[in-house]
């Protein structure tokens, strides 16, 4: 069943879009990531222009993350205080990111930049997560618990705050900076930023894995919603028809993902997420390196 997407100006299969939304929803519930790191490149692959994929992908992330948070609220695994601090940084970062996105759009370089951002960030994060997850998995198989650093340089910084749900007493500076960087990425890449936030919360802030996922999703809801509003009001690149189909699939998928996630070990979840990140990174890098089928592309430039 083909549907025409007015903003993207392409026709795509509606069932395929529902399936993509469902897949991303499952990831959201399992890993505490918005799923945009996978959804946005998949939209590139089916012919959606990168500027539309980024803005509309952020919109879908809101729905799948909200669905995932509801499941975590029942288990009381959301640290609202930590989520608020991350959110403060995220809003500032999203504003800066949309400003940069708009500037690059006027320069005509936004499509290439978005793809390059994906290859660089997914490659670095995926590799680091994969190596660490393998190490943790080996340690747990030997019978020893997977250790998490309780104290590092973060604990020596000023402006400390107590986060009771996470069992932490640390400076607010690192969470604000994590939120800020995730906000910038949300605006430029159309991601919730969970693929960066989740490892940062575990290894940098020292949060327990069971609390990280729900807290990450809580923050992603608001940053992704704010990013969507900014893109819709400044770039006019949010395709409502595309967003609705992705959201319907995402909300259902997130519930299944949460159930699957609770039945797997933390180390298994992390190594699975790292593998998926590296897979998407490889596909994008290949597309950038291979000779395109069309060497020239003529597009009309809006002079207004």
Could you outline the blueprint of secondary structure elements for this entry?
Elements: E1 2-5, E2 10-13, H1 14-31, H2 36-45, H3 50-75, H4 80-107, H5 110-141, E3 160-163, E4 168-171, H6 173-189, H7 194-204, H8 209-234, H9 240-262, H10 266-289
Antiparallel strand pairs: 1-2, 3-4
Account of the protein in words:
- With 304 residues, this protein is mostly helical.
- It has one domain.
- The protein is built from ten helices and four strands.
- α3 packs parallel to α9, α4 packs parallel to α6 and α6 crosses α8.
- It is globular.
- The mean pLDDT is 76.
User: Total helix count?
Assistant: 10
Largest sheet: 2 strands, antiparallel
Please give the alpha-carbon distance between the first and last residues: 36 Å
Helix content: over 70%
Quaternary structure classification? single chain
Mean pLDDT: 76
Q: Give the beta-strand count.
A: 4
Indicate how many domains the architecture comprises: 1
Order of helices and strands, N to C?
EEHHHHHEEHHHHH
């Amino acid at each position: 069943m083909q549907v025409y997407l007015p903003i993207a100006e392409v026709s795509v299969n509606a069932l395929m879009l529902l399936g993509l939304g469902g897949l991303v929803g499952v990831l959201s519930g399992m890993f505490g990531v918005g799923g945009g790191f996978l959804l946005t490149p998949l939209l590139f692959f089916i012919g959606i222009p990168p500027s539309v994929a980024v803005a509309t992908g952020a919109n879908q992330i809101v729905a799948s993350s909200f669905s995932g948070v509801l499941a975590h609220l029942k288990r009381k695994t959301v640290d609202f205080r930590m989520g608020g601090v991350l959110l403060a940084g995220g809003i500032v970062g999203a504003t800066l990111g949309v400003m940069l996105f708009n500037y690059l759009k006027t320069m005509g370089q936004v499509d290439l930049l978005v793809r390059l951002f994906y290859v660089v960030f997914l490659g670095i994060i995926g590799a680091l997560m994969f190596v660490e997850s393998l190490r943790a998995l080996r340690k747990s198989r030997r019978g020893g618990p997977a250790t998490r650093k309780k104290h590092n340089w973060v604990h020596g910084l000023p402006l400390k705050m107590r986060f009771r749900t996470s069992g932490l007493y640390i400076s607010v500076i690192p969470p604000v900076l994590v939120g800020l960087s995730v906000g910038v990425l949300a605006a430029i890449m159309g991601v919730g930023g969970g693929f960066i936030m989740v490892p940062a919360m575990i290894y940098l802030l020292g949060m327990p894995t069971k609390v990280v996922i729900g807290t990450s999703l809580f923050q992603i809801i608001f940053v992704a919603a704010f990013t969507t509003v900014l893109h819709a009001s400044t770039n006019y690149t949010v395709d409502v028809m595309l967003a609705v189909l992705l959201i319907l699939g995402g909300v259902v998928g997130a519930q299944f993902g949460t159930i699957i996630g609770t039945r797997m070990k933390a180390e298994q979840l992390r190594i699975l997420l790292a593998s998926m990140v590296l897979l998407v990174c490889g596909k994008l890098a290949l597309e950038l390196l291979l000779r395109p089928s069309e060497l020239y592309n003529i597009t009309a430039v809006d002079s207004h």
